[in-house]
Design the sequence.
């Protein structure tokens, strides 16, 4: 969610010999329009289930880089994947989507650049109507005005405020548990599908805490917490066979944590004392304070 903490710079795209060429930036944002009827799928490939079929001429926001010839998109209020063969991609175009501001005191400007006049200062969770994209900027309507906000400060979809009662950590846990059972999707960072770090960053960001995007980089956020001092809402980290830190979840108390598990295939709850997680535990960070 993407997003965000996440600089979603638009990936330059071009058509060459019928194939869509997209730059290898880690995160990107832009616009696209369907050139024919095309299926929106839950993953990057025809083996994934169909969410719905988009009509010819529908616009959308491209939320990331191409994978297996498919682009991750946000269309008609849903996140999904579409074959790049049936999309015209542009860095500047009109789109229609809803979102909300995912940072504090984010500036809304008259043009798509930091040298443009500041029209107003937005607040976290403020709803915006996205009417277009211009590179890494969204053209939006908010507060009775039209202007531009950088895409990394806008979360696509509807804002879900945190519960009012309880400690900060309890709010993090309560918010995270809403997504139990959501499918695991590689590079997913939205309620339509999460990978481990996409889930953790989405939860924290939705509650106003910015983080990095990957598990290893989230480990640089917040402050270190000893395992014996874990509190609900702390991020817990685990090693993998391929890198020092390859997995992250959120501690919920009672020796358990919630995470997007590739093994289970969805957001689930596991125990820190389970053999794998006990052996691969790296440490914890307190981000929500």
Sequence:
């Amino acid at each position: 969610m993407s997003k965000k903490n996440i600089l979603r710079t638009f990936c330059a795209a071009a058509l060459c010999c019928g194939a869509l060429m997209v730059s290898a930036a880690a995160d990107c944002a832009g616009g696209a329009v369907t050139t024919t009827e095309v299926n929106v799928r839950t993953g990057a490939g025809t083996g994934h289930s169909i969410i719905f079929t988009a009509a010819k001429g529908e616009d959308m926001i491209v939320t990331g880089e191409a994978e297996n010839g498919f682009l991750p998109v946000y269309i008609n209020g849903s996140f999904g994947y579409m074959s790049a063969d049936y999309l015209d991609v542009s860095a500047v175009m009109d789109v229609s989507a809803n979102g909300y501001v995912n940072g504090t005191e984010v500036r809304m400007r008259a043009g798509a650049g930091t040298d443009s006049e500041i029209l107003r200062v937005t607040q976290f969770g403020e709803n915006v109507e996205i009417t277009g994209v211009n590179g890494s900027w969204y053209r939006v309507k908010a507060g009775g005005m039209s202007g531009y906000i950088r895409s990394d400060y806008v979360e696509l979809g509807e804002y879900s405020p945190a519960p009012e009662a309880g400690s900060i950590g309890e709010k993090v846990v309560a918010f995270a548990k809403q997504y139990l059972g959501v499918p695991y999707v590689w590079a997913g960072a939205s309620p339509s599908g999460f990978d481990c770090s996409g889930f953790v960053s989405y939860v924290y960001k939705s509650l106003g805490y910015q983080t990095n995007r990957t598990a290893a980089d989230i480990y640089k956020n917040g402050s270190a917490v000893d395992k014996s001092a874990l509190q609900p809402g702390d991020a817990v980290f685990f090693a993998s066979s391929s890198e020092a830190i390859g997995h992250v979840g959120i501690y919920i108390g009672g020796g358990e944590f919630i995470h997007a598990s590739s093994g289970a295939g969805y957001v689930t709850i596991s125990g820190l004392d389970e053999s794998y997680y006990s052996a691969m535990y790296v440490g914890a960070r307190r981000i929500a304070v």
